[in-house]
Design goal:
With about 475 residues, this protein is α/β, with parallel strands linked by helices. It has two domains: about 120 residues, no CATH class; about 270 residues, 4-Layer Sandwich (Purple Acid Phosphatase, chain A, domain 2), CATH 3.60.21. About 35% of the residues lie in helices and about 20% in strands. The protein contains 16 helices and 13 strands. The strands form three sheets. It has a six-stranded mixed sheet. Helix 11 runs parallel beside helix 12. The radius of gyration is 29 Å and the shape is globular. Bound molecules: manganese (II) ion. Manganese (II) ion (MN) binds next to loops.
């Protein structure tokens, strides 16, 4: 028998959301919505513009915790939400139920619920949870450490103390949120470079960038090497890639490998995370971060002039645990509009890429011994290992040239273009500085290598 309007109202009062209510009386969510509309009752969706509820509708909603109620309580949490969470709130507002919003977002209702619940939890950590009389919030970067209340005989709050503490564990999450917000206006903003007219589909050009250490400062008189700073790093890297792109034969694919330690310092403290060593840095960290992102943008755009497809792998180094992840996120957002670019944003310290009979492994090199790498590759990519004949590991970290033919694959470490700093000088590091290009044939393996030495690169301000 068709449920009556009363049945629908009762069902709404007994269930936590409209979808479950509809199911309990044998209706779909859409049927329930149509029935409510036909009866002159508003569905939850119509409350979401913030307009006043009618008395009748109040009665419906007061009994059951509908999605609409939830949304109203979530509205106050909006200012504590991340861009992803705001998108979830907006979808709920537009579609009126968790089920419909989850559908529109292409996620499960359970996943959306948990994302929405996280907004309540993060707001509560900041001191906002009106249902618990918590409305005194603490600033970004702090969390509520405890709340004490003094109530009178009627249970009314007479006094309340809010204690706050600076975040430690959530600092990274806040930074990630911040970076996503900062990068948001640039999402898909990359200018489309005209694709090359002819290319060899059997060739791949690999551009390994050994430890760029952007932001490193070196004073020649102290280090016995060259002066080095943010501007020199940018000039050298962009010019080196430009030359190597020129030297590369027309190859359909490019693989740009940032082998880690792209940034010299991971934050404004300018100290290493593990040893706490003071780092010689040029300029402010935020400036270094933005110049670093600009360098990668220019490198990728240059590669796009020559290659049809450009894939970028950013390795996490021991100097840039977090900023390397920021770099990947920013680049992925910026190039979102270009189907010819693929930015690998996986935070896994080992990355792989298969090209025909070639298998490439990439890692910074500070977490394992080089001799272990062949077995790690065989284990992580067992099928690809069996299907390929030419296998290579690209690693950085040690700042010098090393090529070892181990059983099953060639393991290689690369030099850096960065000058040595006072610490590396004192430790006795004396290796040369260059950048290489490897050209790889789909079946025949590595067929060509080019090298650009730092001595041939321009300095800032040189006529090009
Ligand atoms: Mn390094």
């Amino acid at each position: 028998m068709e449920p009556t309007t009363n049945d629908i109202v009762n069902a709404l009062q007994q269930h936590t959301n409209a979808t479950d209510a509809a199911a309990s009386i044998g209706l779909s969510y859409d049927q329930l919505k149509r029935r409510l509309a036909a009866a002159g009752l508003r569905t939850s969706a119509h409350y979401l513009d913030g307009s006043e509820l009618s008395d009748e509708d109040q009665a419906i909603l007061a009994g059951g915790r509908t999605d609409c109620d939830w949304l109203r309580s979530l509205a106050g949490c909006r200012k504590f939400a991340s861009p992803e969470q705001i998108a979830a709130l907006d979808a709920l507002a537009t579609h009126g139920s968790v089920a419909a919003a989850a559908d529109a977002l292409g996620m499960t209702a359970a996943a959306l619920r948990s994302r929405l619940s996280e907004i309540e939890r993060s707001s509560a950590r900041r001191g906002y949870s009106p249902a618990h009389d918590m409305t005194h919030t603490v600033p970004l970067g702090f969390h509520v450490d405890g709340i004490s209340q003094l109530r009178d005989a009627e249970g009314r709050i007479k006094q309340q103390w809010v204690k706050s503490k600076a975040d430690k564990e959530s600092r990274i999450a806040l930074l990630m949120d911040a970076v996503q917000r900062i990068a948001e206006p640039f999402r898909g903003a990359s200018e489309l470079v005209a694709p090359p007219t002819h290319n060899n589909a059997d060739l791949l050009s690999v551009y390994p960038m050994g430890d760029p250490h952007i932001g490193l400062f070196a004073w020649a008189q102290e280090t016995g090497d060259s002066d080095f700073d943010l501007r020199i790093a940018e000039t050298h890297l962009v010019a080196a890639v430009d030359r190597l792109v020129m030297l590369s034969p027309p190859s359909e694919q490019a693989l740009i490998l940032n082998l880690g330690d792209f940034f010299h310092a991971d934050d404004q403290s300018a100290r290493t995370k593990r040893g706490g060593h003071a780092l010689d840095v040029d300029s402010r960290w935020a400036k270094v971060l933005s110049v670093g992102i600009r360098i990668m943008r220019r490198i990728i755009e240059r590669a796009l002039e020559k290659h049809d497809r450009v894939r970028v792998i950013n390795e996490i180094g021991n100097h840039d645990d977090h900023s390397s992840i920021f770099l990947g996120v920013c680049l992925a957002q910026f190039f979102e509009n270009n189907p010819r670019v693929e930015i690998d944003t996986s935070p896994n310290p080992f990355h792989y890429y298969r090209f025909g009979a070639n298998l490439f492994g990439v890692t910074h090199g500070h977490t394992v011994k080089l001799a272990q790498l062949p077995q790690i590759m065989a284990n992580d990519r067992a099928k690809d290992w069996g299907d390929t004949r030419h296998r290579f590991w690209y690693t950085g970290h040690v700042h010098h040239d090393q090529r070892k033919e181990l059983i099953g694959c060639v393991v290689e470490t690369f030099r850096t273009l960065a000058a040595r700093d006072a610490w590396h000088n004192a430790q006795g590091y004396r290796s040369g500085r260059d950048m290489k290009l490897h050209v790889v044939h789909r079946e025949r393996g590595r067929i060509m290598e080019h090298r650009v030495g730092v001595e041939s690169l321009p300095m800032p301000g040189d006529a090009s």
